[in-house]
Each structure stands twice: as C-alpha cells, then as structure tokens.
Amino acid sequence: MKTRDELIDDLLTLSFAEDVGDGDHTTLSTITADEMGKQRLIIKEPGVLAGVEIARKVFEKFDPSLKMTVFIEDGARVKPGDIAFEVEGSVRSLLQTERTMLNIMQRMSGIATTTARYQDKLKGLKTKVLDTRKTTPGMRMLEKEAVKIGGGCNHRIGLFDMILIKDNHVDFAGGIKEAVDAAKKYLKETGRDLKIELEVRNTDEINQALEAGVDRIMLDNFTPERTREAVKLINGRTEIESSGGITYDTLRDYAECGVDYISVGALTHSVKGLDMSFKAC
C-alpha cells in the first residue's frame, strides 16, 4: 500500500504530465532560460488558508532551486490582500508550476474554509464535523488534510482503515449479527486492529448493534427528533455519528441531540475554491 507522501508525489507527477505535457511552449518561446524572477501568492477573499506545505512540494518537485518564503501558515484566517508566500528563481519554472500550485491551494483552502464554517456553528458543543469518501479522485489525501486544517476530523481515509458496515453489507451478510460477527472474525484472523462502525436505519437495528458490540453507530437519515431518542437509548455505550441529508442550517439541531460526530459530504464534494492569484512582483 502506498504512503500518503507517495500518493501526493504520484498526484504531482500526473498534474505536471497533464498540464505541461511535452513542454510549456508559450513560456519556452517567450522567456529565456536564464531569466530569474519572483512571484507572490495574493489572497482575494476571506477564508482559511490550506495547502502551503503542499505548494512547497510542488515547487521542490518541479525545480528544487526555487526558493519559497512563507508569510502565512496553513490554518490561518486570511483576508483580501494578504500575501501568503513568495517564490523566487527561474521564471520558466515559476510559470510552469503556477497552475498546479493554484489548483491545489484554491481547492484545499476552499475545503478548509467550508469546514471551519461548519465547525464554528458547533461552538460550545462536543460534536465534531467529519468528512466522507466523496472526494476528488487522486486528491483525497490533500482534501482530507484540508478538512483537518479547517478544524474538522477525518472519518476514514479509504476502505482500508476502518470497518464500516452499511445496509448493503448487512443485507448481503444476512443480518447485523452475522455481519458484525464476520467482521470481528476477519480482524482476529488477519491480525488487524480496526474500529467497527455500523449504519442503522431504525430503533430495532440500534438494539441489534448494541448487542453485537460495535465501536460506533451511524444514524442514517434520522430526523433530529429520532436522533435525540437514539442518543438516549444508546446512553453512552458507543460513539454516535449522524449522517445523511444534514445541511449547514440543520447541523446544530443534530449536534444538540448529543451525537459525537456529524459526517458532511459537502465539505469536499461540492466546495468552492478560495480565490487567490500568483502574481509577478
């Protein structure tokens, strides 16, 4: 299995391959090889900055001689006119890395900003906002990192770091007890230490989940009223996550029921990038 850093390196390799191709012919034809210069990343709207360390990897991978000076770190609240960093060196390298860096910075900062907005709405409560696997193919590591930078939590990175038994697994396995027992047997036989979460649809399934013994129960498409009843029934015996159809406007209603987590696909699947530009000094 590839590490986080290996996956990010693969993403950057692909990004350069699809953008630069056999050469940036505009830059190659208009800028001499020995031309040196400096560009700065300028913020154009309020938000939470994310992706600075990944931007450094972009520049280092393409041209290790580029020098990056950072003024604002990941996680900082930024406003229009702020200068996040400057990069100096070969103008050809600056121009060829610009779009890849901006695509990453804008996307990650948009996710961090959205996450912070959601988490801020839960101020004073124990509930944490979770992301999902509804991410851009190839960019999952970066998008989930952005969620953390914005103050949220990662649910699971992929299919490999948690057992999440959903309705289809239950139906194919023959029931909740059968699915959970099979998962526990699998973990024991393979020597893996993974949490088991179970998606439930009603009170009867909650009782079955508690009897089967899972680490977390996911309340799927429950109303706030039903969620409050479920929290009372579970009574602290396992972690509780709310999921399905929860919006920014209804977020706090669910959190006030006492759940530990609320998973929100909108943190990553339809977020707007934060506006910024990379301009020559």
Question: What can you see in these coordinates?
Answer:
The protein has 281 residues and is α/β, with parallel strands linked by helices. Helix content is 45%, strand content 19%. It contains 11 helices and 12 strands. It has helices at residues 4-20, 25-30, 52-62, 91-120, 140-149, 167-173, 176-190, 203-212, 224-234, 251-255, 266-269, and strands at residues 36-43, 47-48, 67-70, 77-78, 83-90, 128-130, 163-165, 196-200, 216-220, 239-243, 261-263, 276-280. Strands 6-11-10-9-8-7 form a 6-stranded parallel β-sheet. Strand 10, helix 10 and strand 11 form a beta-alpha-beta unit. The mean pLDDT is 97.
Mean pLDDT: 97
Structural class: alpha/beta
Portion in beta strands: 15-25%
Question: How are helices and strands ordered from N to C?
Answer: HHEEHEEEHEHEHHEHEHEHEHE
Largest sheet: 6 strands, parallel
Strand count: 12
Number of helices: 11
- In quaternary terms, these chains amount to single chain
**Spatial arrangement of strands, main beta sheet:** 6-11-10-9-8-7
Q: What is the global morphology?
A: elongated
Termini distance? Answer: 42 Å
In angstroms, what is the radius of gyration? 23 Å
Outline the low-pLDDT stretches: none
Helix content: 40-55%
How would you summarize the topology of this molecule?
Elements: H1 4-20, H2 25-30, E1 36-43, E2 47-48, H3 52-62, E3 67-70, E4 77-78, E5 83-90, H4 91-120, E6 128-130, H5 140-149, E7 163-165, H6 167-173, H7 176-190, E8 196-200, H8 203-212, E9 216-220, H9 224-234, E10 239-243, H10 251-255, E11 261-263, H11 266-269, E12 276-280
Parallel strand pairs: 6-11, 7-8, 8-9, 9-10, 10-11
Antiparallel strand pairs: 1-5, 1-12, 2-4, 3-5
